[in-house]
Amino acid sequence: MGVLMLRRFFTLLIGVLMAVSVSSPVVAASSFTDVPDSNIFSDDIEWLAVMGITQGCNPPVNDEFCPSDLVTRGQMAALLVRALGLTNDGGGDHFTDDDTSIFETDIDKLYTAGITMGCNPPTHDTYCPNNSVTREQMAAFLRRGLDTTPSQVTDVIATLSGGSGEIDVSWDPVPDLDIDHYNIWYSELPGGTKTLITDPYIGPDTRDSGRWYIIDYPRSLVSGNDCYQVSAVDLAGQEGQRSAEACFDSTPGAPDQVTGVAVGLGGGSGEAYISWTRNTDPDLSHYNAYYSELPGGPYTFRQTVADDEIDGSNRVFFVDFPVDLTVGKTCYEISAVDLSGNEGTRSIEECFAP
Length: 354
Prior knowledge:
Elements: H1 7-19, H2 42-50, H3 73-84, H4 104-112, H5 135-146, E1 154-161, E2 166-172, E3 179-187, E4 195-196, E5 212-216, E6 225-234, E7 246-249, E8 262-266, E9 271-277, E10 284-292, E11 300-305, E12 315-320, E13 330-338, E14 350-352
Antiparallel strand pairs: 1-2, 2-5, 3-4, 3-6, 6-7, 8-9, 9-12, 10-11, 10-13, 13-14
């Protein structure tokens, strides 16, 4: 057989390919007149026919398989597309030399799936559909077709490490055998846009328990939050789905109760002036303001207040038009919310009677 692939050899490879994902059907008598039961590959060939992977070699009759013929790159594209269930051609016309080939659509699907890159590196603008497939080429095609992206990383934990102010991030290794490394993604806001940490490792990469870990200096101590996601990358450079986010909160628990709430008339304009003492929690996100026109409630959520309006006395305030002047009361309660979404106890009620 030399370096060229016979159809019988390709049949065995496709059998291995499909065995990893599809249960084998019961194989009946041969669909092809040129594949007698005495052929040692007859069951494999019939399996391909039953699965719809091969349609024969003599269209439109297609009652022959041509078991000893060489496989062309065009034929190989059709067989792999059917075996892998590929449907996306990426818009088509990816190569300049397959416009007259009956396999052009299959070749485009194979290219879009990243299984072929062409036959003339480094230009890669031709596919050579009529060339025979070599064993080394088939190895590349099968690896690209079978090598899925790595599994998602699970069980990420972020904790304080050793009292040194460093963040210890650990996770369970993924089961894939071809993992090259892990990417560590960071933000200082829960749910925030993550950036890749280029060199996070300090010390060994694994624990005695088998968990992977890094020790990372907190990127920012302003917010009191350090949030991570981890992804696995295989030897082919494919990155798996990132893990669920794990955050270390240096100030766990809800923020302190807001104090010093005052409500009054603002500027003679009939607006209600609400102020309170600024919360000192380092991971403060915002304040929630709740309103009622009756002392004692019931209260409804009025608005979110950012911690960016601070007067000279270090008080936060906003100016509000009273929602309802019917009863002549404007009552508020204020709470602080941290970056993890924890809401502190609401302040004591304060009302303004115009």
